[in-house]
Write a structure and sequence with these properties.
By secondary structure, this protein is an alpha/beta fold. The chain has one domain: Alpha/Beta hydrolase fold, catalytic domain (Rossmann fold), CATH 3.40.50. The protein is 28% helix and 20% strand. A 7-stranded mixed β-sheet has the order 4-3-9-8-7-5-6, with helices on both faces. It has a two-stranded antiparallel sheet with strand order 1-2. It starts with a strand and ends with a helix. This is Cutinase. Its EC number is 3.1.1.74. Belongs to the cutinase family.
């Protein structure tokens, strides 16, 4: 595959070499024209081999076992009070992944810490079933919300970056007040929403309802970035299952971390 260099740099002047899978990106409520990102998910033909989509997901998760750990973070301790982090990533993994941050959340936590070298950055993996029937998104949203409530009570100056991948994006949708499809959960209360500095989601099933977070939850429009790879059947109605598995290696994790870091207050 031929690489092409795009004249865009990161916050620290990094030049990105972007190739392969194109994606629709919605940043702060505005849709950015499809563009290529580093890495590739492979072709639709390669993705349409034997076995179900869920089986292919499980195979990919098994290949990335070291990335499916539980709670992780940047520097320990410190923050705005004893035991508090300046920033905490609260992330929900995708369907079929074992408990932990998952194949997208773990590198996102690492990238976010790298973007904020002067801050303490922690992370929390939402505890929920991530079941194939998708109905676990509501209980996942409740766990996300109750964790934020607990941390905010003890650490009132901690800023949260919340998000999820695949069904984990649905968890995030419900937590910010978007009504779920066939499932319900607890939303973050109004008095704590100001502590949510950024929302970062990947492969959000909300796209199948022809909606974005900016449309369904305007309060969060200017602090949300959504990534949907072209051909992703979970968010875009395509038939390239490999596109749904490409977020952890196509450059969008770094872009999500950069966006979130830019929304962290001083």
């Amino acid at each position: 595959m031929t690489k092409r260099r795009v004249g865009a740099t990161g916050r620290r002047g990094r030049r990105l070499v972007l190739v392969g899978v194109s994606a629709v990106v919605v940043i702060a409520g505005a849709m950015v024209a499809p563009q290529a990102f580093a890495g590739t998910a492979g072709s639709s033909a390669a993705a349409s081999g034997n076995g179900s989509f869920l089986q292919r997901l499980r195979e990919r998760f098994a290949q990335n076992g070291g990335q499916n750990g539980g709670q992780t973070g940047g520097q320990a301790g410190g923050g705005n009070a004893a035991g508090c982090s300046d920033v905490e990533l609260v992330f929900a993994r995708g369907t079929g992944e074992p408990q932990g941050l998952g194949i997208v959340g773990r590198p996102l936590a690492q990238a976010l810490a790298a973007e904020l070298p002067g801050r303490t950055v922690g992370s929390f993996a939402v505890v929920y079933a991530a079941a194939s029937n998708q109905r676990s998104a509501g209980p996942g949203a409740t766990n996300m919300t109750e964790h934020i409530e607990q941390v905010a009570q003890n650490c009132p100056e901690t800023q949260f970056v919340i998000g999820g991948y695949s069904q984990g994006a649905s968890v995030t949708d419900i937590a910010i007040g978007i009504r779920g499809a066939g499932t319900a959960g607890k939303a973050i209360p109004a008095n704590l929403r100001g502590q949510v500095a950024a929302v970062v989601v990947y492969g959000n099933p909300l796209g199948l309802r022809r909606q974005t977070i900016a449309q369904a939850a305007p309060e969060f429009a200017d602090r949300t970035v959504e990534f949907c790879n072209n051909g992703d059947p979970v968010c875009g109605g395509g038939n390239n299952f490999a596109a749904h598995l490409a977020y952890n290696r196509n450059g969008t994790v770094g872009r999500g971390a950069e966006f979130a870091a830019g929304r962290i207050g001083g």
